[in-house]
Known about the structure:
Helices cover 32% and strands 32% of the residues. The chain is α+β, with helices and mostly antiparallel strands.
Amino acid sequence: xxxxxxxxxxxxxxxxxxxxxxxVSNGRLFSAPNLPRPPLISLRTISQQEGFFGPRGSRxxxxxxxxEAGAAGNMAQASIALxxxxxxxxxxxxxxxxxxxxxxxxxxDKTIKFYTECLGMKLLRKRDIPEERYxxxxxxxxxxxSHFVVELTYNYxxxxxxxxxxxxxxxxxxxxxxxxxxxxxxxGGKVTREPGPVKGGETVIAFVxxxxxxxxxxxxxxxxxxxxxxxxxxxxxxDxSITFYExxxxxxxxxxxxxxxxxxxxxxxxxxxxxKSTVLELTYNYxxKEYNKGNGYAQxxxxxxxxYKTAEAIKICGGQVTREPGPLPGINTKxxxxxxxxxxxxxxxxxxDFVKELE
Length: 359
Protein backbone atom coordinates (compact mmCIF):
# COMPACT_ATOMS: atom_id res chain seq x y z
CA UNK A 1 0.00 0.00 0.00
CA UNK A 2 2.78 2.36 0.79
CA UNK A 3 5.86 2.20 -1.29
CA UNK A 4 8.95 2.21 -0.56
CA UNK A 5 3.57 12.82 9.14
CA UNK A 6 -5.16 26.03 28.27
CA UNK A 7 -4.49 28.11 30.63
CA UNK A 8 -1.63 30.54 29.93
CA UNK A 9 1.35 30.72 32.25
CA UNK A 10 1.78 34.49 31.81
CA UNK A 11 -1.21 35.46 33.96
CA UNK A 12 -0.28 32.98 36.70
CA UNK A 13 3.30 34.20 36.83
CA UNK A 14 2.19 37.83 36.87
CA UNK A 15 -0.10 37.23 39.85
CA UNK A 16 2.61 35.25 41.58
CA UNK A 17 5.03 38.13 41.02
CA UNK A 18 2.60 40.68 42.49
CA UNK A 19 1.93 38.53 45.55
CA UNK A 20 5.62 38.00 46.06
CA UNK A 21 6.39 41.74 45.92
CA UNK A 22 3.69 42.41 48.53
CA UNK A 23 5.05 39.64 50.71
CA VAL A 24 8.53 41.11 50.48
CA SER A 25 7.23 44.57 51.41
CA ASN A 26 5.42 43.16 54.45
CA GLY A 27 8.57 41.30 55.43
CA ARG A 28 10.47 44.59 55.59
CA LEU A 29 13.38 43.52 53.45
CA PHE A 30 14.00 47.07 52.38
CA SER A 31 16.56 49.16 54.21
CA ALA A 32 14.64 52.46 53.93
CA PRO A 33 11.58 52.34 56.21
CA ASN A 34 9.75 55.22 54.45
CA LEU A 35 10.51 54.15 50.91
CA PRO A 36 7.66 55.21 48.62
CA ARG A 37 5.65 52.33 47.19
CA PRO A 38 6.98 51.68 43.70
CA PRO A 39 4.73 51.44 40.69
CA LEU A 40 3.96 47.91 39.42
CA ILE A 41 6.61 47.33 36.80
CA SER A 42 8.49 44.40 35.38
CA LEU A 43 10.89 42.63 37.71
CA ARG A 44 13.33 42.42 34.82
CA THR A 45 13.28 46.23 34.60
CA ILE A 46 13.75 46.52 38.36
CA SER A 47 16.66 44.11 38.34
CA GLN A 48 18.42 46.44 35.96
CA GLN A 49 18.08 49.33 38.41
CA GLU A 50 20.14 48.26 41.39
CA GLY A 51 19.93 51.71 42.96
CA PHE A 52 16.17 51.45 43.18
CA PHE A 53 16.25 48.84 45.99
CA GLY A 54 19.81 49.18 47.14
CA PRO A 55 22.28 46.30 47.34
CA ARG A 56 20.07 44.09 49.56
CA GLY A 57 16.97 44.67 47.50
CA SER A 58 18.90 44.05 44.32
CA ARG A 59 20.06 40.71 45.64
CA UNK A 60 16.47 39.85 46.48
CA UNK A 61 15.26 40.67 42.98
CA UNK A 62 17.95 38.49 41.48
CA UNK A 63 17.06 35.65 43.85
CA UNK A 64 13.37 36.08 43.18
CA UNK A 65 13.96 36.07 39.43
CA UNK A 66 15.71 32.73 39.85
CA UNK A 67 12.78 31.41 41.88
CA GLU A 68 10.36 32.70 39.26
CA ALA A 69 12.34 31.03 36.47
CA GLY A 70 12.46 27.79 38.45
CA ALA A 71 8.71 27.90 39.01
CA ALA A 72 8.13 28.50 35.31
CA GLY A 73 10.40 25.57 34.48
CA ASN A 74 8.54 23.31 36.89
CA MET A 75 5.21 24.32 35.40
CA ALA A 76 6.51 23.65 31.89
CA GLN A 77 7.77 20.24 32.94
CA ALA A 78 4.44 19.44 34.57
CA SER A 79 2.64 20.47 31.38
CA ILE A 80 4.90 18.26 29.27
CA ALA A 81 4.40 15.35 31.64
CA LEU A 82 0.62 15.77 31.46
CA UNK A 83 0.74 15.96 27.68
CA UNK A 84 2.88 12.82 27.58
CA UNK A 85 0.51 10.94 29.87
CA UNK A 86 -2.47 11.93 27.75
CA UNK A 87 -0.73 10.86 24.54
CA UNK A 88 0.34 7.50 25.96
CA UNK A 89 -3.15 6.87 27.32
CA UNK A 90 -4.60 7.57 23.87
CA UNK A 91 -2.11 5.15 22.27
CA UNK A 92 -3.37 2.37 24.54
CA UNK A 93 -6.95 3.01 23.45
CA UNK A 94 -6.21 3.40 19.73
CA UNK A 95 -7.58 0.73 17.40
CA UNK A 96 -4.34 -0.76 16.06
CA UNK A 97 -3.55 -3.83 13.99
CA UNK A 98 -0.53 -4.94 12.01
CA UNK A 99 -1.64 -4.65 8.37
CA UNK A 100 1.23 -5.81 6.15
CA UNK A 101 4.98 -6.05 5.77
CA UNK A 102 6.75 -4.54 2.76
CA UNK A 103 9.91 -5.85 1.13
CA UNK A 104 11.57 -5.88 -2.28
CA UNK A 105 12.02 -8.82 -4.63
CA UNK A 106 13.94 -9.32 -7.86
CA UNK A 107 11.48 -11.50 -9.80
CA UNK A 108 7.85 -10.85 -8.88
CA ASP A 109 6.30 -13.70 -10.86
CA LYS A 110 8.77 -16.23 -9.49
CA THR A 111 8.14 -15.09 -5.92
CA ILE A 112 4.36 -15.16 -6.34
CA LYS A 113 4.61 -18.71 -7.68
CA PHE A 114 6.67 -19.82 -4.65
CA TYR A 115 4.35 -18.20 -2.12
CA THR A 116 1.17 -19.60 -3.66
CA GLU A 117 2.38 -23.10 -4.51
CA CYS A 118 4.80 -23.76 -1.65
CA LEU A 119 3.55 -21.62 1.24
CA GLY A 120 -0.15 -21.79 0.44
CA MET A 121 -0.76 -18.04 0.18
CA LYS A 122 -3.28 -16.39 -2.11
CA LEU A 123 -2.58 -13.52 -4.49
CA LEU A 124 -4.98 -10.88 -3.16
CA ARG A 125 -4.26 -8.02 -5.54
CA LYS A 126 -1.61 -6.63 -7.82
CA ARG A 127 -0.98 -3.10 -9.04
CA ASP A 128 1.48 -1.67 -11.53
CA ILE A 129 2.71 1.92 -11.31
CA PRO A 130 4.59 2.39 -14.61
CA GLU A 131 5.15 6.12 -14.15
CA GLU A 132 7.19 5.31 -11.04
CA ARG A 133 8.55 2.05 -12.46
CA TYR A 134 7.43 -0.43 -9.83
CA UNK A 135 4.80 -3.13 -9.23
CA UNK A 136 3.20 -4.30 -5.98
CA UNK A 137 1.68 -7.66 -5.19
CA UNK A 138 -0.25 -8.44 -2.00
CA UNK A 139 -0.37 -12.04 -0.78
CA UNK A 140 -1.64 -13.70 2.37
CA UNK A 141 -3.99 -16.20 3.96
CA UNK A 142 -7.10 -14.04 4.06
CA UNK A 143 -8.58 -10.63 3.14
CA UNK A 144 -6.44 -7.59 3.87
CA UNK A 145 -9.13 -5.96 6.01
CA SER A 146 -8.79 -8.75 8.58
CA HIS A 147 -5.43 -10.50 7.96
CA PHE A 148 -1.76 -9.60 8.02
CA VAL A 149 -0.30 -9.90 4.50
CA VAL A 150 2.94 -9.39 2.61
CA GLU A 151 3.39 -6.55 0.13
CA LEU A 152 6.01 -7.44 -2.45
CA THR A 153 7.63 -4.61 -4.38
CA TYR A 154 9.33 -5.12 -7.72
CA ASN A 155 11.32 -2.14 -9.00
CA TYR A 156 11.78 -2.24 -12.75
CA UNK A 157 15.17 -3.64 -13.70
CA UNK A 158 16.37 -4.38 -10.15
CA UNK A 159 16.86 -8.12 -9.78
CA UNK A 160 18.82 -8.48 -6.56
CA UNK A 161 18.82 -6.98 -3.06
CA UNK A 162 20.97 -7.14 0.03
CA UNK A 163 18.87 -8.55 2.87
CA UNK A 164 21.48 -7.60 5.46
CA UNK A 165 22.03 -9.07 8.91
CA UNK A 166 19.31 -7.24 10.84
CA UNK A 167 16.24 -8.83 9.28
CA UNK A 168 15.56 -12.28 10.71
CA UNK A 169 12.57 -14.10 9.24
CA UNK A 170 8.83 -14.30 8.81
CA UNK A 171 6.88 -16.89 10.76
CA UNK A 172 4.14 -19.10 9.31
CA UNK A 173 2.00 -21.38 11.46
CA UNK A 174 1.22 -24.74 9.82
CA UNK A 175 -0.48 -27.85 11.14
CA UNK A 176 2.19 -30.25 9.82
CA UNK A 177 5.72 -28.89 9.40
CA UNK A 178 7.17 -32.09 7.92
CA UNK A 179 4.46 -32.30 5.28
CA UNK A 180 4.94 -28.64 4.34
CA UNK A 181 8.70 -29.13 4.03
CA UNK A 182 8.20 -32.14 1.75
CA UNK A 183 5.97 -30.04 -0.49
CA UNK A 184 8.51 -27.23 -0.64
CA UNK A 185 11.27 -29.66 -1.54
CA UNK A 186 9.12 -31.18 -4.28
CA UNK A 187 8.65 -27.70 -5.77
CA GLY A 188 12.39 -27.08 -5.74
CA GLY A 189 12.38 -24.83 -2.67
CA LYS A 190 15.36 -24.42 -0.34
CA VAL A 191 15.15 -25.88 3.17
CA THR A 192 17.78 -24.47 5.53
CA ARG A 193 16.68 -26.30 8.68
CA GLU A 194 14.97 -29.67 8.68
CA PRO A 195 11.83 -30.20 10.82
CA GLY A 196 12.48 -30.84 14.49
CA PRO A 197 11.91 -29.45 18.00
CA VAL A 198 13.19 -25.97 18.69
CA LYS A 199 16.25 -25.85 20.94
CA GLY A 200 15.20 -25.96 24.55
CA GLY A 201 11.54 -26.56 23.68
CA GLU A 202 9.01 -28.88 22.12
CA THR A 203 7.55 -26.85 19.25
CA VAL A 204 8.43 -28.43 15.89
CA ILE A 205 9.89 -25.92 13.46
CA ALA A 206 11.75 -25.74 10.15
CA PHE A 207 13.32 -22.96 8.08
CA VAL A 208 12.99 -22.37 4.34
CA UNK A 209 14.10 -19.60 1.98
CA UNK A 210 12.17 -17.92 -0.81
CA UNK A 211 13.79 -17.16 -4.21
CA UNK A 212 15.28 -13.90 -2.91
CA UNK A 213 16.74 -15.44 0.25
CA UNK A 214 14.13 -14.21 2.75
CA UNK A 215 13.79 -16.80 5.51
CA UNK A 216 10.50 -18.27 6.69
CA UNK A 217 10.16 -20.16 9.96
CA UNK A 218 7.49 -22.85 9.83
CA UNK A 219 5.92 -23.39 13.27
CA UNK A 220 3.75 -26.41 13.95
CA UNK A 221 0.48 -25.24 15.53
CA UNK A 222 -3.19 -26.02 15.47
CA UNK A 223 -5.65 -24.06 13.34
CA UNK A 224 -5.18 -20.30 13.68
CA UNK A 225 -6.96 -17.27 12.24
CA UNK A 226 -3.57 -15.68 11.45
CA UNK A 227 -1.11 -18.13 9.82
CA UNK A 228 1.35 -15.36 8.88
CA UNK A 229 2.19 -14.95 12.54
CA UNK A 230 5.63 -13.36 13.03
CA UNK A 231 8.10 -10.77 11.78
CA UNK A 232 11.51 -11.15 13.42
CA UNK A 233 13.97 -8.25 13.59
CA UNK A 234 17.27 -7.98 15.47
CA UNK A 235 17.88 -5.07 17.85
CA UNK A 236 20.89 -3.70 19.72
CA UNK A 237 19.26 -2.78 23.04
CA UNK A 238 16.32 -4.98 23.99
CA ASP A 239 15.08 -2.99 26.99
CA UNK A 240 15.15 0.23 24.96
CA SER A 241 13.17 -1.42 22.16
CA ILE A 242 10.59 -2.90 24.54
CA THR A 243 9.98 0.51 26.12
CA PHE A 244 9.65 2.17 22.71
CA TYR A 245 7.19 -0.34 21.30
CA GLU A 246 5.12 -0.36 24.48
CA UNK A 247 4.84 3.43 24.80
CA UNK A 248 5.06 4.78 21.25
CA UNK A 249 3.31 1.88 19.48
CA UNK A 250 1.00 0.69 22.27
CA UNK A 251 2.14 -2.90 21.89
CA UNK A 252 2.02 -5.42 24.71
CA UNK A 253 5.00 -7.46 25.86
CA UNK A 254 3.59 -10.96 25.36
CA UNK A 255 6.58 -13.11 26.16
CA UNK A 256 10.28 -12.91 26.91
CA UNK A 257 12.77 -15.76 26.78
CA UNK A 258 16.47 -15.69 27.51
CA UNK A 259 18.77 -18.32 26.02
CA UNK A 260 22.15 -17.88 27.74
CA UNK A 261 23.58 -21.06 26.19
CA UNK A 262 23.21 -19.57 22.72
CA UNK A 263 23.70 -15.99 23.95
CA UNK A 264 20.49 -14.39 22.80
CA UNK A 265 17.15 -13.15 24.16
CA UNK A 266 13.85 -12.90 22.32
CA UNK A 267 10.63 -11.06 23.09
CA UNK A 268 7.23 -11.21 21.44
CA UNK A 269 5.26 -7.98 21.17
CA UNK A 270 1.94 -7.24 19.55
CA UNK A 271 -1.70 -6.25 19.77
CA UNK A 272 -3.10 -9.66 20.65
CA UNK A 273 -2.15 -13.20 21.67
CA UNK A 274 0.44 -15.07 19.60
CA UNK A 275 -1.94 -17.83 18.55
CA LYS A 276 -4.51 -15.42 17.14
CA SER A 277 -2.60 -12.44 15.74
CA THR A 278 0.66 -11.44 14.10
CA VAL A 279 3.43 -10.45 16.51
CA LEU A 280 6.76 -8.68 16.30
CA GLU A 281 9.65 -10.87 17.46
CA LEU A 282 12.65 -8.85 18.62
CA THR A 283 15.95 -10.67 19.04
CA TYR A 284 18.94 -9.42 21.00
CA ASN A 285 22.24 -11.25 20.47
CA TYR A 286 24.57 -10.72 23.40
CA UNK A 287 27.02 -7.90 22.75
CA UNK A 288 25.79 -7.03 19.24
CA LYS A 289 24.67 -3.40 19.12
CA GLU A 290 24.30 -2.72 15.40
CA TYR A 291 23.24 -4.59 12.26
CA ASN A 292 23.43 -4.08 8.52
CA LYS A 293 19.85 -3.57 7.32
CA GLY A 294 20.58 -4.01 3.63
CA ASN A 295 18.11 -2.66 1.09
CA GLY A 296 15.60 -5.49 0.73
CA TYR A 297 13.38 -5.32 3.79
CA ALA A 298 11.37 -2.07 3.94
CA GLN A 299 8.77 -1.68 6.70
CA UNK A 300 5.71 -2.83 8.61
CA UNK A 301 2.37 -1.04 8.23
CA UNK A 302 0.06 -0.61 11.24
CA UNK A 303 -3.49 0.70 11.27
CA UNK A 304 -4.50 3.64 13.49
CA UNK A 305 -7.56 5.80 14.07
CA UNK A 306 -5.51 9.02 13.94
CA UNK A 307 -2.14 9.43 12.21
CA TYR A 308 -1.71 12.92 13.65
CA LYS A 309 -2.00 11.81 17.28
CA THR A 310 0.17 8.80 16.46
CA ALA A 311 2.98 11.03 15.19
CA GLU A 312 2.69 13.25 18.25
CA ALA A 313 2.95 10.26 20.60
CA ILE A 314 5.99 8.93 18.74
CA LYS A 315 7.75 12.28 19.11
CA ILE A 316 6.90 12.49 22.81
CA CYS A 317 8.43 9.05 23.30
CA GLY A 318 11.65 10.14 21.63
CA GLY A 319 10.97 8.49 18.29
CA GLN A 320 11.92 9.94 14.94
CA VAL A 321 9.08 10.76 12.56
CA THR A 322 10.41 10.42 9.01
CA ARG A 323 7.18 11.45 7.29
CA GLU A 324 4.86 13.97 8.88
CA PRO A 325 1.21 12.88 9.04
CA GLY A 326 -0.98 13.68 6.06
CA PRO A 327 -2.59 12.26 2.91
CA LEU A 328 -0.64 10.53 0.18
CA PRO A 329 -0.72 12.33 -3.18
CA GLY A 330 -3.17 10.79 -5.59
CA ILE A 331 -4.98 8.36 -3.26
CA ASN A 332 -5.48 10.63 -0.19
CA THR A 333 -4.80 7.83 2.29
CA LYS A 334 -3.45 9.49 5.42
CA UNK A 335 -0.20 8.06 6.78
CA UNK A 336 2.76 8.88 8.96
CA UNK A 337 6.12 7.09 9.13
CA UNK A 338 8.80 6.69 11.77
CA UNK A 339 11.86 4.67 12.70
CA UNK A 340 12.49 2.85 15.98
CA UNK A 341 15.72 3.25 18.02
CA UNK A 342 17.47 0.73 15.73
CA UNK A 343 16.30 2.38 12.52
CA UNK A 344 13.53 -0.10 11.63
CA UNK A 345 10.81 1.72 9.72
CA UNK A 346 7.08 1.58 10.41
CA UNK A 347 4.23 3.27 8.53
CA UNK A 348 0.94 4.03 10.31
CA UNK A 349 -2.12 4.10 8.07
CA UNK A 350 -5.50 5.66 8.79
CA UNK A 351 -7.97 2.81 9.37
CA UNK A 352 -10.87 4.34 7.48
CA ASP A 353 -8.72 5.37 4.54
CA PHE A 354 -7.21 1.88 4.40
CA VAL A 355 -10.63 0.25 4.06
CA LYS A 356 -11.61 2.76 1.38
CA GLU A 357 -8.45 1.98 -0.55
CA LEU A 358 -9.30 -1.72 -0.53
CA GLU A 359 -12.73 -0.93 -2.01
